[in-house]
């Protein structure tokens, strides 16, 4: 019987250290260098951040998303979840702890599918935190349905030539290399005819046309690139995991990426709940504190319950990943977590914003950023609707249609069967009357 909701004391000590460290030393980076966490370190930023990374390394908490067998020092997904929910409070924290998306997912697929040479060239510096990477899959005309992708790689001697367009390739502007999903064989199904390539960003023909920003970011702050791959020549050994393996690789990458986002979202939603509670206790109106108003108590209770449900769901799914060590077996629950995540963050951030009054909607408080973040979570790594479809399909696998007209739980039919089962006793009852 191992349903245990306690963290072992040794690891709890590390988590306590991480919690204090993030609040005290890392969150200030968000204010001094906002949105710059994916810009390679230099000057004052390097001087400030490198010692923090060194402290994390000394605690043994650096890059814990990969297990030792994949070149990391991970403790598994459950422990990562407990750490990530602390890191989720801060934009910079994942960088300081060496476990930021999208690099975690990219590292994971190179670890799984890369050759020794690819690991040496890309994975080692990625795990060292010395470079950034980009996952370039979505196209301007198609995102949720990868079978519609048209970016093409064609063999030319030992090389491949890539042509096409990709959209929303996050961090391409600062990444050292791109993982590009392309069609290599248009004559078979997309599931067999697409492949992944590792492409250094400075390869001739990789043209970043513009860096699209999210709402609220300034024009020059966007980090989601529209890329034209214009006759990009790469050698045969740029192929990752073999020809036709793109879908298998994508599933490995996206499963991990989705659950890691969810872990960090717990931290962000908890931050919103913390702010909600502090405000409720601090603000007076119409003769009492906000915390004494039933509406506000309702906001707090709903938020607490939503966060607790979500957290348990994420921790359980992380535990399942550790148990099965196979994302495919946990697909249903990862998709369910992905479906719930935007609503949880949206609802809690929205209520917290509401009880802060006018101040809540200003750029002096973080709530609108959280609400936009929730909207983003309903799209990045696939739209909510698609994940709901996955959940439903997986759930339905465990059910069969009824053979007759009436449902299995149709009460008259069940009653008749029950009466037949206990007929002799029912007869006796009648006889005693
Ligand atoms: C912040 C952010 C970062 C991102 N980073 C990356 C990245 O690094 N690399 C990358 O390759 N991509 C990235 N993306 C792109 C993301 O993966 C796509 O936006 C997503 O897959 C949806 O594709 P789309 O935008 O083309 O929407 P579409 O595929 O056009 O879908 C539009 C809408 O149609 C509806 N819809 C779609 N399919 C279905 C369906 N089957 N059933 C019902 N309704 C449906 C949904 O409402 C959906 O939102 C990022 C996106 C965001 C917002």
Automatic annotation (TrEMBL):
Keyword line: FAD, Flavoprotein, Oxidoreductase
The keyword Oxidoreductase is assigned to this record: yes
Occurrences of domain Acyl-CoA dehydrogenase/oxidase N-terminal (ranges): 9-130
Record GO cellular component, one term: cytoplasm
InterPro entries from the UniProt entry: Acyl-CoA_dehydrogenase, Acyl-CoA_Oxase/DH_mid-dom, Acyl-CoA_Oxase/DH_mid-dom_sf, AcylCo_DH-like_C, AcylCo_DH/oxidase_C, AcylCoA_DH/ox_N, AcylCoA_DH/ox_N_sf, AcylCoA_DH/oxidase_NM_dom_sf
Ranges for domain Acyl-CoA dehydrogenase/oxidase C-terminal: 247-396
GO molecular function: acyl-CoA dehydrogenase activity; flavin adenine dinucleotide binding
Domain annotation Acyl-CoA oxidase/dehydrogenase middle: ranges: 134-221
Known catalytic reactions: a 2,3-saturated acyl-CoA + A = a 2,3-dehydroacyl-CoA + AH2
Membrane-spanning intervals of the chain: none
Pfam families referenced in this protein's UniProt entry, alphabetically: Acyl-CoA_dh_1 (PF00441), Acyl-CoA_dh_M (PF02770), Acyl-CoA_dh_N (PF02771)
Cofactors: FAD
Keyword Flavoprotein: yes
Superkingdom as given in the UniProt entry: Bacteria
Example of a GO biological process term: fatty acid beta-oxidation using acyl-CoA dehydrogenase
Subunit structure: Homodimer.
PANTHER family xrefs: ACYL-COA DEHYDROGENASE FAMILY MEMBER 11, MEDIUM-CHAIN SPECIFIC ACYL-COA DEHYDROGENASE, MITOCHONDRIAL-RELATED
Family: Belongs to the acyl-CoA dehydrogenase family.
Name by which UniProt lists this protein: Acyl-CoA dehydrogenase domain-containing protein
UniProt source species: Mycolicibacterium brisbanense
């Amino acid at each position: 019987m191992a349903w245990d909701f306690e963290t072992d004391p040794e690891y709890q000590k590390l988590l306590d250290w991480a919690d204090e460290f993030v609040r005290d030393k890392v969150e200030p980076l968000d204010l001094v260098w906002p949105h710059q966490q994916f810009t390679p370190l230099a000057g004052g930023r390097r001087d400030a951040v490198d010692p923090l990374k060194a402290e994390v390394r000394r605690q043994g908490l650096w890059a814990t998303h990969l297990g030792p067998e994949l070149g990391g020092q991970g403790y598994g997904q459950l422990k990562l979840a407990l750490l990530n929910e602390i890191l989720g409070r801060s934009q910079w924290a994942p960088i300081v702890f060496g476990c930021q998306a999208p690099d975690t997912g990219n590292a994971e697929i190179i670890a799984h599918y890369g050759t020794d040479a690819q690991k040496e060239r890309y994975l080692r510096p990625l795990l060292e935190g010395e470079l950034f990477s980009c996952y370039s899959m979505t196209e301007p005309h198609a995102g949720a349905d990868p079978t519609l992708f048209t970016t093409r790689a064609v063999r030319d001697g030992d090389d491949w030539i890539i042509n096409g367009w990709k959209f929303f390739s996050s961090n391409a502007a600062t990444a050292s290399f791109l993982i590009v999903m392309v069609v290599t064989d248009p004559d078979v199904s997309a599931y067999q005819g697409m492949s992944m390539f590792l492409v250094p960003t400075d390869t001739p023909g990789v043209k970043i046309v513009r860096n699209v920003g999210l709402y609220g970011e300034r024009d020059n702050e966007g980090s989601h690139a529209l890329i034209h791959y214009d006759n990009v020549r790469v050698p045969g050994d740029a192929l990752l995991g073999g020809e036709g393996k793109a879908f298998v690789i994508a599933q490995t990458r996206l499963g991990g990426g989705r659950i890691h986002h969810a872990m960090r979202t717990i931290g962000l939603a908890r931050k919103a709940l913390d702010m909600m509670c502090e405000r409720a206790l601090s603000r007076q109106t119409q003769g009492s504190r906000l915390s004494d108003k039933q509406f506000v108590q309702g906001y707090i209770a709903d938020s607490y319950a939503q966060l607790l449900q979500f957290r348990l769901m994420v921790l359980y799914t992380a535990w399942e990943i550790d148990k099965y060590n196979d994302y495919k077996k946990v697909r249903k629950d990862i998709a369910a977590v992905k479906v719930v995540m935007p609503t949880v963050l949206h609802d809690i951030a929205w209520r917290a914003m509401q009880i802060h009054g006018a101040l809540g909607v200003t750029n002096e408080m973080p709530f609108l950023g959280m609400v936009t973040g929730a909207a983003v979570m309903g799209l990045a790594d696939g739209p909510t609707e698609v994940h709901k479809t996955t959940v439903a399909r997986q759930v339905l696998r465990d059910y069969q249609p009824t053979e007759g007209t009436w449902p299995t739980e149709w009460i008259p039919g069940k009653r008749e069967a029950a009466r037949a089962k206990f007929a002799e006793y029912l007869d006796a009852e009648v006889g005693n009357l």
